[in-house]
Amino acid sequence: MGNEKDEEQDQEKDQEKEAAGRAAAKLVRDGDIVGLGTGSTAYFAVVALGERVKAGLKIIGIPTSVHTADLARAVGIPLTTLDEHPEIDTTIDGADEVDPKLNLIKGGGGALLREKVIATASKKMVVVADSSKIVPVLGKFPLPVEVIAFARTVVERKIVSLGGLPKLRLKADGSPYLTDNGNEILDCSFGKIADPTALARDLSGTPGVVEHGLFIGLAKLAIVGRGNSVDEIQAKPTRRKRAQTKRVRTKPPSRKRQTKSRKP
Known about the structure:
Elements: H1 2-25, E1 33-36, H2 40-54, E2 60-63, H3 66-74, E3 88-93, E4 97-98, E5 104-105, H4 112-120, E6 122-130, E7 143-147, H5 152-161, E8 165-168, E9 184-189, H6 196-204, E10 209-212, E11 214-215, E12 221-226, E13 229-234, E14 244-249
Parallel strand pairs: 1-2, 1-3, 3-6, 6-12
Antiparallel strand pairs: 4-5, 5-11, 7-9, 7-10, 8-9, 12-13, 13-14
Helix pairs in contact: 1-2
């Protein structure tokens, strides 16, 4: 019974991811330069964009990882580089956690450095996620920190002094996981992160840290799958106003049995 329940929950989560990814892909306009994110939800956005390209949409993509580049080529999306197009119109990417201000934890897939470079080069970053990724406070998901191997021990000590518990990410064979840039990743458990901006500043100022997975103030819109619908959460330009949520009905994916969504 437990396995069946887990499989049903996984199917529902995949349906939400697909709904979010497809909804985000609809925002891309003809002629756009598009940042292509990495991860299980961004996957659906890339596939949906590939379908639109086959239907006549003219775009060029810049991938955030080798894996996404391979996927984009497979679905027919023309690719370019930041050298050729240093300004990106829209980036669609996933997240491991999203807070009410659209601050993010990213890097579960190991592409945090390139993802942040692409995000900061974008006019608009759209985050896609299933409903489980929306949290009141960041920190339940361990924060990925990309480091150079030479400085790992020093960085670990610094992270401990900041209240974190770092753990080196390993591959299945027990060797260190390496990013597309050849660096290592420390997955750092901080618990609830009361001040993400301050922690981001401390980590960015630590020699040996290449990049960290706190994305502060970069996302302009989050599209979140919830059952048979998606929520659109807009980032507000002022600190006094909270992010606003708008529910949008979408056509549910047809391959699986759907459950009726609750009213907001």
